[in-house]
Design a protein that fits this description.
20% helix; globular; binds iron/sulfur cluster; Alpha-Beta Plaits; binds FE3-S4 cluster; alpha+beta; two-stranded antiparallel sheet
Length: 107
């Protein structure tokens, strides 16, 4: 099993999650973070840290978010590790909860 960053992270990218991960499995892209499923130890700590509720366990993935399982695995291999919180985008709050953000995912 692994934890998965889902759609609502896109353009919010608060990065609170990275501070609590004991095994540094978050990887940073331009406007989204990805969890490496090969590194995640299912400790659950990050799930409650995300202000955008954008992290769930693989077992709890809603059906419309299944695509993010593959995306996390793929993007985590391409992007560098992030272990320190950084400022969120200035308009992060306005994007929290917006539907259909997958089209804005930058690689
Ligand atoms: Fe890291 Fe634990 Fe979250 Fe997995 S569940 S990404 S190990 S904090
Ligand atoms: Fe994204 Fe939430 Fe982390 S918005 S960067 S998963 S704290």
């Amino acid at each position: 099993m692994t934890f998965v960053v889902i759609e609502n992270c896109i353009k919010c990218k608060y990065t609170d999650c990275v501070e609590v991960c004991p095994v540094d499995c978050f990887h940073e892209g331009p406007n989204f973070l990805a969890i490496d499923p090969d590194e995640c130890i299912d400790c659950t700590l990050c799930e409650s840290e995300c202000p955008a509720k954008a992290i769930v366990s693989e077992d709890d993935l809603p059906s419309d978010q299944r695509v993010f399982l593959k995306l996390n695995a793929e993007l985590a291999k391409l992007w560098p590790t992030l272990t320190r919180k950084k400022p969120a985008p200035p308009d992060a709050e306005t994007w929290d909860g917006v539907a259909d953000k997958l089209k804005y995912l930058e690689r």
